[in-house]
Amino acid sequence: MHERATPAGQQVRRRSVFMIGGYEPKSSGAFYARTERELKRFCETWGVTAEVLSKGDRDDGRIANIRIATSHGEGRVETDWNFFVWNDIVLGDFAKPFWYRIPRYWLTFADYVLSGTFIRILFLAWRFALYFLYPAVMHLIFGLAGWLTGRLVAGFGFPGSLAAGWATGIIVALGLWRTVGERYYVRHLGDLWSFSRNFVWGYRKDAEAALDHLADRIAERARAGIDEEILLVGHSTGGGLILDAAARALARFPELGEQGPRLQILTVGSTALKIGMHPAARAYRTRVQTLVDARQVRWSEWQALTDIINLYKSDPVKAMGLKPRPKNRVTGRFPRVVLVRIRDMLQPDAFRRVSKNFFRVHYQFIMGNTKRYAQDFYMACCGPHFLQQDRTDTGDTA
Question: What CA–CA distance (Å, rounded) separates 68 from 28?
C-alpha cells in the first residue's frame, strides 16, 4: 500500500535532514549541484517555489549543509539539510594498489559464501544476489582473457616464451581490470563489498568514527528542539549506515524522538541487509534492535522491483532475525515497507532514458520526480507534512 505524499494532518514548518548516500566519492560540491538541480525539478512537478538560503561545509568538510525554504499553498517549510561526506574514506579505498584490492575482494567473496550470507541473500532477493556475483564474474572473465592470451604467447615456442606468456597474461588481465573494470564499475563494486565485509567485522574504525560524529550532530540538533521533524535518510549502502548512526544518536540521547522533534528514518534503495544478515554483524544488529525497541522512532523503507540494488519485498527487521516491535496502533509497522514504482515517478520519455542504466534507476530514489507520485524524495525532505503520519495526526485512532 502506498503512503500519501501530502496527507491531511499536522504540518511541518522546520525540518532537519541528515543523509548518508551510497559508497561513492560524492563531494560536497557534487551534493550541492545535485540538490539544486533536482530541487528545480521538484518545483516544476509540484508547482511550488524553493529558495536556497545558504550552503557550506561544516565540521572540517564532514558535513555538507544546505538550507532550503520551500513555499507552497499551505505555507513555508525550512529544511536544514546535512549530507554526510565520506568521499575521503571511499577515495582512500580506491587509491590502494591492485595487489591489495583484488585479494581483499576475493576474501570478501569467500566470506559471504562460506558464512551463508550469500545463500540468505539469494533466497531473499535473487536479483540482488546477481549484483553480488557481478564483480566476481567479471574478475573471472578478466582472468580467463589473460590466461588465453598468455597461453597463445607461450605456444609460439621461442626461448623464454613460457615466461613471456605468464607476463603477457598478467598484463592483459590487469589491463582489463584497470580499464574495463573502471568503466563498468567492477573495481568500484569490488571495493564496496570489501568495505561492507570489513564494516561487519568491525575493521572500519574510520567509518565508525565518522558515524559517531554524525550521531553527535543528530543528538545535538534534537536536544535543541528547533524542528518539528528530524529525518534521517540512507540510500544504498547509506541505508545500512544511517541505521547505525541513528542507534548511536539514540544511545547519546535516549529521549530522541520522544522529547523535541519527531524522529523519522527513511531508507531508500537500501542494501542494509548485506551488513545486517552477516553472522558476524552481531554488534550492528544489537544497535538496530535498540531502534526497534524505541517506540518513538519511526522508520519507512522504500523498495522498488525495477531497482536490482535493493532487496525487494524484504522486511529488514525479520531478515536480520531481530525481535519485532509489538503492534503499535499509533505509529504502525516498523519498518513501514512501501513498494514503489519507479515508472510512476517519471514521465514516459524520462523513464525510458533512466531505465537503460540500472545505476540511474537505483538513484531515482533520491532524485526529483517528473510526475506527481506518493513517494517523492524532495517532498519528503522539503514538503509540509511528516513523512509518516500517525493515526493521531489525522484523528484516526481506530
Answer: 16
Question: 161-183 and 98-114 are packed helices; what angle lies between their axes, rounded to 10 degrees?
Answer: 70
Task: Determine the Cα–Cα distance for residues 18 and 256; give it in Å rounded to an integer.
Answer: 14
C-alpha cell at 93: 579505498
Amino acid at 177: W
- Identify whether the C-beta of residue 345 lies closer than 8 Å to the C-beta of residue 371: yes
Dihedral (C-alpha) 200, 206, 208, 209: value to the nearest 10 degrees? 170
Question: Which pLDDT tens digit goes with each residue over 335-384?
Answer: 999 999 999 999 999 999 999 999 999 999 999 999 999 999 999 999 99
CB atoms within 10 A of CB 147: 16
- pTM of the predicted model over 0.85: yes
With cell 514521465, the residue in question is: 347
- Three-state secondary-structure class, residue 71: strand
Could you count the other beta carbons within 10 Å of the beta carbon of residue 342?
Answer: 22
Q: Is the pLDDT of residue 166 over 50?
A: yes
pLDDT at 328: 72
Would you list the domain boundaries of the chain?
14-89+205-231+241-388, 96-198
Verify cis geometry, omega within 30 degrees of 0, for the bond prior to 335: yes
Residue count of the chain, please give it.
Answer: 398
CB 86 within 8 A of CB 64: no
Q: What share of the chain is helix, strand, coil (3-state, %, to 5)?
A: 50, 15, 30
Helix axes 87-94, 205-224, angle to 10 degrees: 170
Question: In a 10 Å sphere around its CB, with 0-12 CB exposed, 13-18 middle and 19+ buried, how is residue 100 labelled?
Answer: exposed
First vs last Cα of the chain: how many Å apart?
A: 18
d(CA 140, CA 129): 17
Residue 263, beta-bridge partner list: 230
Q: Are the C-beta atoms of residues 125 and 312 closer than 8 Å to each other? A: yes
CA–CA gap between residue 366 and residue 360 (Å, rounded):
10
Above 70 in pLDDT, residue 31?
yes
Residue/partner pairs of 104-113 with CB below 8 Å, 24 or more apart: 104/194, 105/135, 105/139, 105/190, 105/191, 105/193, 105/194, 106/136, 106/139, 107/194, 107/197, 108/190, 108/193, 108/194, 108/196, 108/197, 109/135, 109/136, 109/193, 111/197, 112/193, 112/197, 112/278
Kindly state the cell numbers that stand for 174.
Answer: 590487469
21 DSSP assignment:
-
